[in-house]
Amino acid sequence: MTAAVVVAVLVAGGVYLVLQRELLRVVLGFVLLGHGVNVLIISAGGMAAREPALLGQQDRAQMADPLPQAFVLTAIVIAFAITVYLLALLKAGDTDDDGTQPDPYRRATGGEDAS
Amino acid sequence: MTGLQALVVAPVLVPLAAAGVLILLTARPPGGGGPFLLPMAARRAVAFTAVAATTAVSAVLLAATSGGAVVVQRLGGWPAGIAIPLAADAFGTIMLTVTGVLGLACLAFAALNDADTDRAFLPQSLLLLAGVHGAYLTADLFTLFVFIEVMLVPSYVLIATGRGPERIAASRLYLTVNLLASTVFLAGLGLVYGVAGTVSLGDLAGRAVADPALAAATAVVLLALAVKSALVPLHNWLPRAYTAAPAAVTVLFSGLLTKVGVYALFRVYSVVYDGDPRFLPVVLVAALLTMVVGVLGAVGAGGMRQILAFHMVSQIGYIVLGLAISTPAGLAAAIYFLVQYVLVKAALLMVAGAVEQHVGTDALDRLGGLAARNPATAAAFAVSALSLAGIPPLSGFVGKLALVVGAVEAGRLTAALVAIGVSVFTLLSMLKIWNGAFWGGPEPAPDPGGGTGTVVALRVPVRAVVPALALGGLSLLLGLWAEPLLAVAGVAAQGLADAGAWATAVGAP
């Protein structure tokens, strides 16, 4: 239950931030979303057993499922790299990003598509 | 371990190794300034050799699997169920081979147009190829996620190598949309693991039919894949992002990125849902909407590359229509269509890119009379455009005919009619490019207002469109001599329709 609440709060905050105009908030939103999803994956392995999965040192019933931990470790590495790159993009175009300019994506295709 | 099993890892490792070499040897010497360690010609040679070797390996794997066999390699020698499996079957190896051919053509196009001089282009393209190849080979949902990320990260870099103020905005849009899709993919993976206790496709085979919870969890994964395939209504990022990327990068992306999404949609739906007909109406509606919305966007667009980008969306609809039919004939038609479409669309984008680079614009209201001065460019465009619209005897005709026949046989008359109607609109927007850019006198009158008027048609060097001509010729060949590819596509479709056999091969000890 606690895990579900944590995921809900993180994802709600993440979605709210991703929907903002300024890119820095979007980046922070993705950080929150990433954490929310990581907690979701960890809880998919079961929250009851939490001991380290070391054969011969732990009771098997108490061991946490190591596979979701490996997933999350991979996901954290990928998310970290992309967050850094997003921040670099933020810096590369910081003059159009104070939230007061017209929507920059309007100009992305030469203004032809009205969608 | 047989030799073939050892070869399965090559399409991932070879480009990865070559990219590493290129990154190391093109780094600036300490202190800045100074020449690069490797001259441009040597860098090109490394990249070409790597992609050519990968394509050769892919062709060998295709020959080995074209009878329906599945070559499985379990990484690290771990037993089945623990190891990460790479599985090459007919569908995967067809995709590998066409990716290799496209990669070679794209490198040639970039070299002939000096579009690969950016330090990032060659190594990042190779990394991208490694990720794409991995995604075509993996038999595990989490590894699929990792390979898709391996493919996306270089694409984030490549899309930002363009010029002009739009590139940052387009990169941000592209990055945020794909990052959101990846996050949804990851959440779906977590849900699948929570419900089923495994993310191996072999173990998940057919389980979504009887387990609604697993069906819902996998649907989250499919939703993320639909974003990456640019299915309507999740398509809007593609035309905006692709038109701001450099021309050679757009060619590479068009043949690789969305195709991986489509491939994964086919694979995951066929394996996990076992082609369950209950959910196919959803796929059908998405496919038809994608076809129609994409082509209408193309009719309304005003630049060559923008029109072609909207057609990318529209053609994805045709391919997914094959999945929505999900009969062996429909799947085979979709696979044939996918292969020929990758080649044709790359040729069109190469022509558009060459025109944009050598004439300075690809806006139709500023171009005119290209055909009179550039017969080779016009020929490359005409062959590919007619193929895209589905005119015999080109490959697009065979693909569309097979799809329409498959739809009619499956009782989807409306879908068949929509497919034919969209073809007419495709032809219409191809004619719009032809009339706007290629037709007319060699030197149209300059616009009295100046500035935004018609530019005098300049020469596009023949070498700039040689790869496009080659791909157009390939389209003609695949249209006139379609039997071999149709036969292999049939084998691949059989493998998709009979997912149980694939899963057994992947999971067998």
UniProtKB/TrEMBL annotation, chain A:
Alphabetical keyword list: Cell membrane, Membrane, Transmembrane, Transmembrane helix
Region ranges (Disordered): 93-115
Keyword Transmembrane helix: yes
Membrane topology: Multi-pass membrane protein
Chief place where the protein resides: membrane
Gene3D superfamilies hit by this protein: 1.10.287.3510
Protein name per UniProt: Cation:proton antiporter subunit C
Automatic annotation (TrEMBL), chain B:
Chief place of localization: membrane
Keyword line: Cell membrane, Membrane, Transmembrane, Transmembrane helix
Signal peptide stretch: none
Location of the protein in the cell: Cell membrane; Membrane
Membrane topology term: Multi-pass membrane protein
InterPro entries recorded: CPA3_Na-H_Antiporter_D, NADH_UbQ_OxRdtase, ND/Mrp_TM
Protein name: Proton-conducting transporter membrane subunit
Organism: Pseudonocardia spirodelae
